């Protein structure tokens, strides 16, 4: 696809150059800065000064001032011209002779500066000498197969090297030590410093003129077979794809990033970046095409033209206007080396952003997002396309000049509903990605507000996550938007995030009361309860406690029971205050007291007594109802019984006074047990209720966490109750036998044998007697084992004592006691097993101290 990269401008007209001399033809051209030199076929050098001017319409034009010209006097064409501005010299090839002339006056330099027998020459634009006051040139000598390297100074030339070649070269280019030569059948690379060479590719010099052109450092452009422009490096490889020329190319030039080629009727312009043809200019009678320091000059035999490159920015904008995104980016990135770094970064970012909007307009969202990311797009540029998404507080204005031609989303999609939906889905995805990155820095309010509005409009599942987590949504903008789309639960969360909990709860209550329609959460009531249970604002909890408990006492009481355990004292609710408040809610107060007593295990008599009374009252209330549920009655009685058994903090006498006149005999027995009035309890269980199993359980739970003797006492009392001679019956006898046989390990066998009647058979008490015998034997054997262990330990101590007594002890007046460090005055001493002698009184004092410390430690442990 074409692009206008160059404009053709006439620089030197026919009349200005030759006047009325029709036979004068242009042979060669050189341009250095504003100086334009033209060599003609009649041995003249013409000098012009070029001034580039910009017209109002943006086009370029040139004004030319003719300077003095020079006739060289050889009557031969001037074949080549090369300027050496550092030397103020012009290197001229005429009649196979290189000579030097002054760049301004065009006067010849004396004969010491000439080189004869030259076919052609080239200047080394990457010199290796390092001398700024000389120019390196390479000449092809008339001598067959000879190349020479010269140093050209201000007033002399000096040969440096001469090399032989396998064939006579016809064209040459030089870069550093590397020569690129065109022979009759092929191109080669030759290192004149080392003499090594590298064949490139063949060509036929009879069919076409060879072209050897330096492109850059150690890289050359060559006219290859098949009309290809081939790139080759000094290493003999090609790092770029070839460009496609015509078969009859006669000249080439390079103006990065373009390669220009001249043939019989056209100038073709290819990109070095993607090797595509970008522009074709019709040009007849073309004779010369050369580039000079960014200028491209085109000439016929009579006139000189300038190929003026259009500014890269204009070329890129033309490509973008044609929606050729990839070509524009390739061109921009390829021009990096020709633009200052800071300016390039700004230009490159803008081009990427423009490219992103072009692809966005084509609904190529993935590609657009990548360009937005690389171009560091201000995300508000994208948001501003969507009507009303930016908050009213935003100060954003679109980039100028604009990055796109879209007024808004409706303009971009032409009102297509499906396209609008896709664009909104893309923006949601894009904003989600960038809101936590540096892209959103400085515009978090704009991003989050826009995202919330999109979520609300599309019913997106992430709306709740956004408003419930850290966000920068503008409240005044978001409230009407959430109300418009009936997202009242999310609105409450947003108020909560903005520390307006009262407003949030009011909205949620309206949803529960069906004053507002929002089906976001079916368990909204439970959510409100949880919210209040973790709310640190006591005023808010009390404000809505009545509403919550009126809805559901069982769930509502959680606002008091599920509060954090580690709550600060300043916000901690006083249980006494809560209990007083809950008196009008019978279920809630029971649940709350259960929480205090059973869950939190608060050891306070008032709470335990209150809970026991509530259990009792609830049971009595149910019992008094004619149509009561037996299951519920059993459940409530079971809770009462369990609590009376497990708690030891309630006022037993008070509860007993309330129970005595009821049918709760078993509970009375439990209370008597708490008062240690076990005979009354057992009388109720055995004689009134005749519940022998309950009597056994009574003994077990009453003796829990008590010593064995206490348990034995209870079981003995129960057995005595069974065996009461005044109340004997077969039923009690059976219960007594079962008790003995099932709990034989608790009873004192001797005491039992005295108690049981003589007429009971051995077989009846067989399990009890076996267990009693086993217990007695086990006790005897354990005693024997303990005695044997003690005897063994005593023998060990005796053995150690004998060993100590068998050793000789040397004691002198010089040896001191290890405890008081005084010497021994008499032969009485104590000898420890580790060989340390001490005074007898010191040893006795030490043993006394150790004993006292042991007693103190034991007392402390006991406490």
TrEMBL record:
The lineage of its organism: Eukaryota, Metazoa, Chordata, Craniata, Vertebrata. Residues 23-296 form the CNH domain. CHCR repeats lie at residues 565-727. It comes from the Eukaryota. GO terms for biological process: autophagy; endosomal vesicle fusion; intracellular protein transport. One of its GO terms (cellular component) is membrane. This is Transforming growth factor, beta receptor associated protein 1. It holds the Pfam family Vps39_1.
């Amino acid at each position: 696809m074409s692009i206008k990269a160059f404009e053709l401008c006439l620089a030197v007209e026919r009349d200005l150059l030759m006047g009325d001399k029709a036979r004068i033809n242009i042979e060669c051209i050189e341009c250095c800065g504003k100086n334009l030199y033209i060599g003609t076929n009649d041995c003249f050098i013409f000098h012009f000064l070029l001034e580039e001017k910009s017209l109002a319409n943006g086009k370029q034009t040139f004004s030319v001032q003719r300077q003095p010209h020079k006739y060289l006097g050889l009557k031969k064409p001037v074949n080549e011209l090369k300027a050496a501005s550092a030397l103020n010299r012009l290197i001229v090839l005429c009649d196979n002779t290189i000579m030097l002339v002054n760049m301004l006056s065009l006067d010849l330099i004396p004969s010491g500066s000439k080189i004869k027998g030259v076919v052609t020459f080239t200047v080394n634009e990457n010199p290796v000498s390092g001398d700024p006051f000389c120019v390196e040139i390479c000449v092809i000598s008339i001598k067959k197969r000879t190349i020479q390297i010269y140093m050209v100074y201000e007033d002399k030339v000096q040969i440096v090297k001469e090399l032989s070649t396998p064939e006579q070269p016809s064209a040459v280019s030089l870069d550093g030590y590397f020569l690129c030569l065109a022979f009759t059948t092929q191109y080669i690379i030759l290192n004149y410093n080392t003499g090594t060479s590298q064949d490139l590719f063949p060509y036929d010099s009879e069919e076409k003129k060879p072209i050897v052109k330096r492109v850059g450092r150690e890289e050359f452009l060559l006219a290859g077979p098949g009309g290809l422009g081939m790139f080759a490096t000094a290493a003999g490889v090609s790092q770029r794809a070839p460009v496609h020329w015509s078969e009859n190319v006669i000249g080439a030039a390079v103006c990065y990033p373009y390669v220009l080629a001249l043939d019989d009727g056209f100038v073709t312009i290819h990109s070095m970046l993607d090797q595509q043809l970008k522009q074709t200019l019709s040009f007849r009678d073309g004779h010369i095409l050369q580039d000079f320091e960014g200028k491209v000059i085109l000439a016929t035999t009579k006139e000189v033209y300038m190929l003026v490159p259009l500014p890269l920015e204009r070329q890129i904008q033309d490509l973008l206007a044609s929606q050729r995104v990839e070509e524009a980016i390739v061109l921009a990135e390829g021009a990096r080396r020709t633009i200052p770094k800071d300016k390039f970064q700004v230009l490159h970012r803008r081009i990427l952003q423009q490219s992103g909007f072009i692809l966005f307009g084509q609904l190529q969202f993935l590609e657009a997002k990548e360009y937005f990311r690389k171009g560091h797009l201000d995300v508000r540029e994208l948001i501003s396309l969507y009507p009303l998404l930016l908050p009213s507080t935003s100060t954003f204005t679109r980039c100028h000049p604009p990055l796109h031609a879209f007024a808004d989303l409706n303009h971009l999609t032409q009102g297509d509903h499906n396209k609008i939906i896709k664009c909104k889905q893309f923006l949601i995805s894009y904003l989600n990605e960038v809101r936590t990155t540096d892209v959103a820095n400085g515009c978090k309010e704009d991003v989050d507000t826009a995202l919330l509005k999109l979520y609300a409009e599309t019913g997106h599942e992430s709306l709740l996550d956004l408003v419930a987590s850290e966000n920068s949504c503008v409240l005044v903008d978001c409230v009407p938007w959430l109300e418009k789309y009936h997202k009242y639960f999310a609105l409450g969360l947003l108020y909560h995030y903005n520390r307006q909990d009262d407003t949030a709860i009011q909205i949620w209550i309206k949803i529960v009361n069906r004053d507002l329609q929002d089906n976001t959460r079916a368990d909204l009531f439970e959510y409100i309860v949880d919210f209040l249970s973790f709310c640190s604002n006591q005023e808010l909890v009390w404000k809505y406690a009545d509403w919550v408990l009126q809805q559901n006492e069982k769930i509502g009481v959680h606002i008091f029971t599920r509060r954090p355990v580690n709550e600060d004292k300043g916000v901690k609710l006083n249980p006494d205050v809560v209990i007083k408040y809950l008196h009008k809610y019978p279920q809630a107060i029971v649940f709350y007291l259960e929480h205090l007593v059973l869950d939190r295990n608060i050891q306070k008599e008032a709470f335990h007594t209150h809970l026991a009374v509530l259990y009792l009252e609830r049971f009595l209330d149910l019992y008094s109802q004619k149509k009561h549920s037996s299951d519920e009655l059993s459940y409530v009685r079971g809770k009462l019984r369990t609590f009376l058994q497990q708690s030891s903090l309630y006022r037993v006498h008070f509860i007993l006074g309330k129970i005595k006149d009821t049918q709760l005999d078993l509970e009375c027995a439990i209370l008597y047990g708490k008062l240690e009035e076990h005979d009354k309890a057992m009388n109720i269980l055995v004689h009134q209720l005749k519940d022998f199993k309950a009597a056994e359980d009574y003994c077990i739970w009453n003796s829990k966490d008590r010593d064995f003797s206490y348990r034995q006492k209870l079981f003995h009392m129960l057995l005595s109750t069974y065996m009461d001679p005044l109340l004997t019956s077969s039923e009690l006898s059976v219960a007594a036998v079962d008790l003995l046989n099932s709990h034989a390990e608790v009873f004192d066998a001797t005491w039992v044998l005295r108690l049981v009647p003589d007429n009971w058979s051995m077989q009846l008490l067989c399990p009890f007697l076996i267990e009693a015998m086993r217990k007695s034997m086990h006790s005897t054997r354990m005693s024997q084992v303990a005695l044997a262990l003690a005897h063994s330990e005593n023998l060990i101590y005796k053995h150690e004592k004998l060993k100590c007594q068998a050793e000789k002890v040397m004691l002198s007046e010089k040896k001191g006691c290890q405890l008081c460090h005084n010497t021994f005055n008499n032969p009485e001493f104590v000898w420890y097993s580790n060989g340390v002698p001490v005074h007898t009184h010191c040893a006795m004092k030490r043993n006394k101290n150790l004993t006292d410390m042991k007693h103190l430690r034991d007392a402390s442990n006991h406490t």
